[in-house]
Amino acid sequence: MILEPSIDKLQTKINSKYTLVTLAAKRARQIQDTKMHQVETPRAATFVGLALEEILEEKLTVDPEYKMINE
Length: 71
Fold this sequence. Notes:
Elements: H1 7-10, H2 17-34, H3 47-56
Helix pairs in contact: 2-3
């Protein structure tokens, strides 16, 4: 079973795997709560898949100045 979009394609958009996973998880929760996404013709059957498609289509990005702060 091949997962789409591939990690290689996604890493051309967001270089860090940690950031990619964190962003996709947070966005997937938002999609689940609101039932709204930004993909015109989604291929994914899951909320995480939809979030990854948004990242691949550059509808979801990370601010390059973003820094994690431990509280």
